[in-house]
């Protein structure tokens, strides 16, 4: 990866498209089409979901010190975001007992994730943080999605395009080995049913990323939406699908509220209340 400034998501375009062209290494990210051949003209995006928890010692600090730590950390994150293509912040205070906030990151190469993470370690607040969960994945074109399934789906793209919804529902996902032993036609039949159910809930957008060989899970599934009840109904109906019987693991599950990082930290540090405007969840105004 060159040292050129990475393409950034802005409020104008809302999407991170990885660069293409002859400068990329052959096969650097092309997805495999149904026939199994490589497609090196389709670069992918590296994605990370980092869940942070504040140590209790931070809550014992004087209020003025907590505010300084929060402000310094927001400044550090905003500067470190230069290494990323997309960065979105979410609060988990009140929805999860073992994590306080989430940073959703996307960038062309893993080195960008590493530089971002390294920069945060220089902030004083980092000494009061733990990371109970961190999921690494990449985008990829789904082998089960074609032109018949495109309405409301993400399976045909390799870009990351957050919608700015109020909620993000995230969980790692692993299928059984028996699933992969089935003939492709049988898997496709079951996935057609799965996709059909998803289309009944148009307010929920799925972002599926792939972790095979990169992390402990096989997929990281992130759903965006404005209604937790709609997402609950979707998941309940999917449980009855035939493909669901081949699920090995789909926990832990996270319900995250879109929020700017500053207010999310204030809430976690006992300094303030949540901001109602989910549309302001970007860390920076136009740079992230």
Description:
The chain has 288 residues and is α+β, with helices and mostly antiparallel strands. It has a single domain (46-280), classed as Alpha-Beta Plaits. It contains 7 helices and 9 strands; from the N terminus they run E-H-H-E-E-H-E-E-H-H-E-E-H-E-E-H. It has helices at residues 56-59, 63-80, 110-120, 177-181, 184-198, 228-239, 261-268, and strands at 46-54, 86-91, 101-107, 129-138, 167-175, 205-210, 219-225, 247-249, 254-258. Strands 1, 2, 3, 4, 5, 6, 7, 8 and 9 form a 9-stranded antiparallel beta sheet that branches. The two termini are 20 Å apart. 34% of the residues are buried. Mean pLDDT is 83; it is low at 1-17, 19-39, 148-152 and 283-288.
Task: Offer a quick outline of the entry.
It contains seven helices and nine strands; from the N terminus they run E-H-H-E-E-H-E-E-H-H-E-E-H-E-E-H.
Keywords:
25% helix, alpha+beta, Alpha-Beta Plaits, 7 helices
């Amino acid at each position: 990866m060159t040292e050129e400034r990475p393409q950034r998501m802005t409020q104008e375009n809302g999407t991170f498209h990885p660069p293409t062209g002859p400068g990329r290494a052959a096969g650097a990210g092309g997805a495999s089409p149904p026939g199994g051949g490589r497609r090196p003209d389709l670069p992918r995006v590296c994605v990370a979901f980092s869940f942070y928890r504040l140590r209790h010692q931070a809550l014992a600090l004087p209020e003025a010190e907590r505010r300084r730590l929060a402000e310094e950390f927001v400044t550090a994150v905003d500067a470190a975001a230069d290494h990323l293509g997309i960065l979105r912040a979410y609060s988990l205070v009140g929805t999860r007992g073992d994590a306080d906030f989430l940073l959703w990151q996307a960038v062309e190469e893993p080195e960008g994730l590493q530089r971002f993470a390294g920069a945060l370690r220089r902030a004083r607040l980092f000494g009061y943080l733990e990371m109970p969960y961190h999921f690494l994945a990449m985008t990829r074109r789904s082998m089960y999605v074609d032109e018949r399934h495109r309405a409301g789906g993400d399976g045909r793209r390799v870009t990351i395009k957050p919608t700015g919804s109020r909620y993000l529902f995230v969980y790692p996902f692993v299928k059984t080995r028996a699933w992969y032993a089935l003939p492709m036609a049988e898997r496709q039949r079951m996935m057609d049913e799965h996709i059909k159910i998803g289309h009944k809930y148009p307010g929920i957008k799925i972002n599926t990323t792939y972790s095979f060989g990169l992390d402990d899970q096989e997929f990281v599934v992130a759903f965006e939406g404005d209604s937790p009840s709609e997402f609950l109904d979707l998941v309940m109906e999917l449980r009855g699908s035939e493909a669901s019987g081949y699920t090995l693991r789909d926990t832990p599950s996270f319900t995250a509220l879109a929020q700017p990082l500053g207010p999310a930290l204030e809430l976690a540090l006992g300094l303030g209340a949540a901001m109602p405007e989910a549309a302001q969840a970007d860390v920076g105004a136009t740079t992230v």
